[in-house]
């Protein structure tokens, strides 16, 4: 449900006329007298400013690419935003304003259908509804997206999910339809001039935008939104039945029984298959779903779905030429890819805007000069939305984002730290270590655990029933092998394990043995917990080998230590329960939403103290 209804005004959103809605049959001729070309292009004016200029080779490309220290802006709706420009100034680039309440120009078909789209999102579909318009928050988001700068938004929440999806879909469709309309108009002009007119308005392949999503249900929502945006009375949708069959949520979907946290049901609503890819092609009276990639205008896929086509080095059959001219990439729910396979997303970015191995029938006379000069990556807009800040997302941006207009990111203070959601009275110990570098942190963490933390657990009999929470599967395997060797040498050392690959029967057996004390230690992975969210009973001590990706999991796991989840023999022992978290300075982004800014500054920057203790307020 939308959180804010507003009556329409002529403020920052404006509908401008197209020649023919921009949904044209390839090569179809339209009447050039119905609207001026300037009116036609207004709906995507910023796209023209961003793409249709020829950089001076003296100042382009901006290499070596890096970003200047950020300047800060306070926006009424988005809050604090950071703006970073390339260190090497790009002279001559057309200016695009970045400020709130800027007029937003949409293609006419999108503006005409926006009312219906908002009514569906607000729950008014099929009944009398008030006049609706984009709320102030959505207008601010579109102002940023329409500046064609890269955008990093690490504050995605479930309350904002629909607004974010609406805004990036509107932006992508405005770009795609505007580009197609200009290309078709130019083709008509070339034919009318007998080939004398010249236009460079295309890339090396047709696909202009890519939306990367984690689940089929996410893709279903985006595609249904797109079809609503381009709805016309005579519009044909090809392969719609196949799309509904393959992407529609199952009729018997798991209902919210209340046995698991609310966000679990939101993550896994509908079809949560993570292997999909689909091309969309827009023509005058037709939207083709499942169009071939080389005839598509827009691709929607999961990282795994694309990885199956991109393949690996040495594979006989692999293809990534279709991504050579991507102008906008949207990565929604980037945090979920840590729970799937982050490397698939990294591999996808590696193959963006690479020189194609084949021509694929391109008309080189229409290809932009900067495309031929291998500058495509500098014109690509990267939009990344996530629930959390994470060092690997920052690394992805640093390594693969080269937008010559720079980067905008939202960076507001943490409102409610996860530690405030802990309901169990238990000491929470944060124990630091100092690796020589970020790469050395894995070995330093392992050494601290095996040389100091684990021996202390084994020495004190009261420290049994201990869950060892591990974020990375690599670390899980390393600890499991070490603990197996230890168990072989010491008959009294007994542990069990649960990871994302553990079969259901083994999971039940491990939970039973841990709860009844037949196993003193439980090695437990974040991915397993994310996909199942079981309440593990019998936990009296937790060691966070590494703090969880999602801050809510920190309080959720600690709250499992409540007396209601303990074996009867643990009655009266609650005062001995403990929580220990291992961390270093490179974990600051993960610690911040768990402890809040003030506590984080204590534990990260006070080097004179190695141990910090917090208790429930």
TrEMBL record:
Annotated GO biological process: maturation of SSU-rRNA from tricistronic rRNA transcript (SSU-rRNA, 5.8S rRNA, LSU-rRNA)
Protein location: Nucleus, Nucleolus
Chain intervals with Acidic residues compositional bias: 28-42
GO molecular-function terms, A-Z: rRNA binding; U3 snoRNA binding
Domain UTP25 C-terminal positions: 419-614
GO CC term, one of those recorded: small-subunit processome
Region spans: Disordered: 1-44
Protein name: Digestive organ expansion factor-like
